[in-house]
Structure formats: C-alpha cells, structure tokens
Write a structure and sequence with these properties.
The chain contains seven helices and ten strands. It has a five-stranded parallel sheet, sandwiched between helices. Strands 6-7-10-8-9 form a five-stranded mixed sheet, with helices on one face. The protein is of the alpha/beta class. The radius of gyration is 19 Å and the shape is elongated. Helix 3 packs across helix 4. The N and C termini lie far apart (61 Å).
C-alpha cells in the first residue's frame, strides 16, 4: 500500500504555537520533507524540532524551490519535488511536508499536494496558525472588527493599489519591496505596524513608517489599518 502525503503547517515560528494535530502527524511520519536544500537550512524543520522529539532520527528530504516568478521553471521544479516524494510513498512511507504558517496561504506545499493527488496518491492538509494571525496577537490588536474588511496581499502585489483598499491590509513577505512600500506609506493617515520574523528568536516589531528598515527580511509582515475617527 502506498504511503500518504501530509502538508503540515508548523505555524509562524514559536514551536508552542504548533497544533496537536501537526505534532502528532509529524511523529507518525517516518519521512520529513522541507522546502530547502537540507534540514539545517529549513526554518520549518527548526520550528518542528523544537517540540517534536527525535526529529533527527527521521529521514529528511531537502526539496528546495527557486526564488523566481517564472512559471515554467517553477512547474518543472514542482514536478521534480513531487517525484522525489512519490518515491517514498511508493515505499509505503508516509511523508510530512513541513511549511511555515498555514499550507493554504501562499505556500508551495499546495502545488505539490495537488500534483501528487492528481497522480492518484492520498494527501491531507494539516492547518497551522497563519503568520498574520500570530502577528496581530503579538500586537494585541484585532484584524477585523464588525463590518471591517480584511485584505491579504502578497509582497508581489501592486502595493499602491492594495494599500488604498478600505479596512485592514495585510502585506506578506514584503522584504524586497519594502522601500517602495515605505515611500507610499509616508504621510499616510493609516495605522502601520511591521512584524519581522514573528515568533522567532529574532522577532522585531516596528510601529511607525520612519522606523521601518528598507532591507527588512523576507519574513516581514505589514498590518495597515484605517485609523479610527
């Protein structure tokens, strides 16, 4: 019998924020897959190993993906990653593919799941706490109140257009475009908070545009809210 692929969300950074189901799933899978060149380079592996015992005794597949928007290159890579996972499934081994936050939010994991499911294998998604929910909790502020809209925008989105939407704007993985975003936000009447590396040892919180660094890291998340009158 073939093994099963589990796409496991390990949450935003603090191992204690992982769900019981995520921990249990990882414990029961003999093979771990990470979207990196090896477990020593995978933040998701580091998070999980902070609470799941004996992680180093499991087989680990280092399955990195290139940082590009070229769909042809990405599709080729996803196919290669899927084939590596299928080899283990064909051996009857369950595989846990670890991903930061939640697998359903801008995650490579879902592309892999869909490809493998289309090839006739069983897959299951294990939800994790999304980074923007964890960031809002760290700030002790709501993302949405009453009829307030919530907009989740990837870092590649046209920030000028997105930041003019009403309600709460969440900009994920904004690092490379932080300079442009900062320029647009200067003079804005909106409330702005940046959380970098939420839940990790090097977490940083900034509450004003002036303090935002233009070389903020890849895991930088901005929460922009309409100011209450």
């Amino acid at each position: 019998m073939s093994g099963k692929l589990y796409g496991v969300g390990v949450g935003p950074g603090d191992p204690k924020l992982m769900t019981y189901l995520a921990v249990e799933t990882i414990k029961n899978c003999p093979v771990i897959a990470v979207p990196a060149d090896g477990k020593e380079h995978a933040i998701s592996y580091k998070i999980a190993s902070g609470i799941v015992k004996d992680m180093d005794q499991k087989e680990c597949l280092g399955l990195s993906s290139p940082m590009t928007k070229d769909r042809k290159i990405l599709e080729k890579n996803y196919q290669k990653v899927s084939e590596e996972i299928i080899k283990k499934l064909d051996e009857g081994k369950n595989v846990a593919y670890l991903t930061l936050g939640d697998p359903t939010v801008y995650s490579t994991c879902m592309y892999i799941e869909q490809m493998i499911e289309q090839d006739g294998y069983q897959v299951e998604t294990v939800s994790g706490i999304p980074s923007f929910c964890a960031a809002a909790a760290r700030l002790n502020q709501p993302l949405g109140e009453q009829e307030e809209q919530i907009h989740i925008l990837p870092g590649s989105y046209e920030e000028g257009e997105g930041l003019q939407l009403s309600g709460t704007k969440i900009l994920m993985k904004t690092g490379k475009k932080m300079g442009q975003i900062k320029k647009f936000l200067q003079g804005s009447s909106q409330d702005i908070c940046l959380v970098e590396n939420c839940g990790m040892d090097d977490e940083r919180i900034v509450r004003s545009v002036e303090e935002i660094s233009e070389d903020a890291g890849y895991y930088s998340l901005l929460i922009v809210k309409d100011r209450k009158r």
